[in-house]
From TrEMBL:
It holds the Pfam family DUF1294. The keyword Disulfide bond does not apply. It comes from Devosia lucknowensis. It comes from the Bacteria. PROSITE patterns: CSD_1, CSD_2. This is Uncharacterized membrane protein YsdA, DUF1294 family. Residues 2-66 form the CSD domain. The chain crosses the membrane at residues 88-106, 113-130, 145-166, 178-198. PANTHER family: CALCIUM-REGULATED HEAT STABLE PROTEIN CRHSP-24-RELATED (PTHR12962), COLD SHOCK DOMAIN-CONTAINING PROTEIN CG9705 (PTHR12962:SF1). GO terms for biological process: regulation of mRNA stability.
Length: 215
């Protein structure tokens, strides 16, 4: 049975919020439930919906209509939030690429290091972009540990650029902290190779020996 309430909390960037019904109940609302509603919702809108439940048992709004929204009416123009540049993720990715280029130029690391970072960076960029799209439409999500794993295993440049471009995974303090730790680790070892403080052949030999001993 349809119910009515007011949208009391709405995050337009992430595409979800909460409706408070006339009985005081808070109901989750995802942007995917408003397809064909005429415009994107905004805080304070009166909402008509059919209550339902999500896969995890949470009370969720279905078949949502914004009262007074004309079908097919274009969404009103909302100025995009101003971004501060240089964004630290973009800056960090540029520093990583510069260190790789310097290390190869100084012959302190092989050229295939750049290829590994490049290929894995593309994989990470696509993974972040797909996860952002999944989040928008309420589909299956990529686990955060997978995204962080791609960053750690040489996809960091693509991951950082995707976070900055898609504005994805940039507001969770724990995720941001994990990303910064991964950035620090990559900057540390790339700097060590570039300045000659660490020999890549020795490092690879030690890693191979360690893996053999584990087996």
């Amino acid at each position: 049975m349809p119910q009515q309430g007011r949208l009391v909390d709405w995050n337009d960037e992430r595409g979800f919020g909460f409706i408070r019904t006339d009985e005081g109940e808070r109901v989750f609302l995802h942007i995917s439930a408003l397809r064909g509603s005429g415009r994107r919702p905004s805080q304070g809108d009166e909402i008509r919906f059919v209550p339902g439940f999500s896969s995890d048992g949470r009370l969720e709004a279905k078949s949502v209509k914004i009262l007074g929204a004309a079908a097919g009416k274009p969404a009103p123009h909302v100025a995009a939030p101003r971004r501060t540049f240089p964004e630290w993720r973009v800056f960090a990715s540029l520093v990583i690429m510069a260190l790789i280029a310097a290390g190869i130029f100084l012959e302190r690391m092989p050229q295939h290091v750049a290829w590994i970072y490049g290929v894995m960076g593309v994989v990470a960029f696509v993974a972040y972009g797909s996860d952002k799209r999944y989040a928008t439409f309420g589909q299956w999500r990529t686990p955060e540990v997978t995204l962080l794993g791609l960053d750690l295993f040489f996809g960091l440049v693509g991951g950082l650029l995707a976070q900055a471009i898609f504005r994805h995974k940039t507001r969770k303090p724990r995720y941001v902290m994990a990303t910064m730790l991964i950035v620090t680790a990559h900057l540390g070892w790339l700097t060590a190779f570039t300045v000659g403080a660490l020999d890549i052949d020795v490092a690879l030999g030690a890693l191979t020996t360690g893996l053999v001993s584990i087996r």
